Amino acid sequence: MRAASRVFSGLGTTIFTTMSALAAEHGAINLGQGFPDDEGPDDIRAVAAKAIMDGPNQYPPMMGMPQLRRAVAAANKRFYGLDIDWQSEVMVTSGATEALADCLIGLLNPGDEAILIEPAYDSYRPIIEAVGAKVVTVALEPPHWSLPLDGLEAAFSDRTKLILLNSPMNPTGKVFSRAELDAIAALMIRHDAYAVCDEVYEHLVFSGAAHIPLMTLPGMRERCLRIGSAGKTFSLTGWRIGYITGPANLMAPVAKTHQFVTFTTPPPLQLAIAWGLEQDDAYFAQLASSLQAKRDRLAQGLAAAGLDVLPTDGTYFISADFRSLLKNKEGFNGSDDEFCREITVKAKVSAIPVSAFYADPAKAPQHLARFCFCKQDAVLDDASARLKAYAKGQGG
Q1: Per-residue confidence at 328, pLDDT binned at 50, 70, 90?
Q2: Got the DSSP string for 219-262?
Q3: Which of 174, 211, 245, 369 would bridge with 351, disulfide CB 3.0–4.6 Å?
Q4: What is 42-282's CATH number?
Q5: Are 108 and 162 a contacting pair, CB within 8 Å?
Q6: Per-residue CA distances from 352 to 32, 91, 171, 205, 289 (Å)
């Protein structure tokens, strides 16, 4: 038999599936996968329910319902001062992962280079490689996840077609600074490159940090495709509603890709998200503040268990250094994968090893675990208590 795709057939079981299965097997609290354990805002779900009964429920326009595309354009103006033509510069997708695929397939050709900043979300690399493009990586430096500017400059070349920028960033919770964005923008202009900007956590920013879309910087308006996610903004991850904003000349090939990937997205859900995006600033602030409180709650619990908590300014995730967690009074000396498996089995709490977000885990930090905090307070408290009891039992 002829071989299937070398890229996708060569992929193993994802770490998320592996750890979730292990958590289920051992009755562990799953803080590995990044989804809330409630059903999302009642008011938005009520709008969707009414829209299902009222219609439309047939194919919507390929680019998305006009109501949602207008709302996305208006949100760009309201939050970031961007003037967007909703008819030619906004498209709705079936989730942000589809949006990423549309952008990467629509822009890249075989032989092009695409820069990834590691640790990186796991879908980026296989999509790029399936197109026949080459991935070039730049690694952030923990614990503050600073961007090495010399390494960034070295990653760019005449073959660089685009850089994929994820801010706020999964898994680190990093929000890129204006200085870092300026450095990226300057290199993009020098090398005539584009940026695909994964900004799905744009409204989940904490502690006074500010999310600055790369698209708002001088010279970037015509070079950036900006991806948003209703699932992340409104804690409705199962709805799979994403949207892309970008200049018309870049949106054209991306839209053609979308046409042959999913074509459309459920219209009642689009109408509900349009309603959500039109709510006042307090609505978005409350969503962020509630998650910030959960971040702080879990951070305190992890620290009480003896872990060193890394800073996180956004997203659903917080990382912790487990080397300080005593085991036989010598610290935990295993890898991050071993640590996450051990706490799943022994502490009954599941997390994700940060090395899983690197192309070569052997070259990644081996002492960090990512925990998800978008869970009920009681769940976070129970997980913290279990980890504290585990640490005490190890001599900590």
Answers
A1: very low
A2: TTTTTEEEEEEHHHHTT-GGG--EEEE--HHHHHHHHHHHHTTT
A3: 369
A4: 3.40.640.10
A5: yes
A6: 5, 32, 9, 21, 24
Nearest Cα to Cα of residue 184 among 159, 205, 167: 167
SS3 at position 335: coil
Label residue 330 by pLDDT band (50, 70, 90). Answer: low
Instruction: Indicate the pTM of the whole model.
Output: 0.95
Domain boundaries, the chain: 6-39+285-393, 42-282
Average pLDDT, the chain: 95
Q: Give the integer Cα–Cα distance in Å for 127 and 105.
A: 8
Alpha-carbon 271 to chain mean position? 24
Say which CATH class 6-39+285-393 falls into.
alpha beta
| Same fold across 6-39+285-393 and 42-282 | no
What is the radius of gyration, based on Cα positions, of the chain? 21
* Structure confidence by residue, pLDDT tens digits, 221-254: 999 999 999 999 999 999 999 999 999 999 999 9
255-285 per-position pLDDT tens digit: 999 999 999 999 999 999 999 999 999 999 9
**β 317-321/368-372 pair status:** antiparallel
Question: Residue 121: how many CA atoms within 13 Å on its side-chain side?
Answer: 25
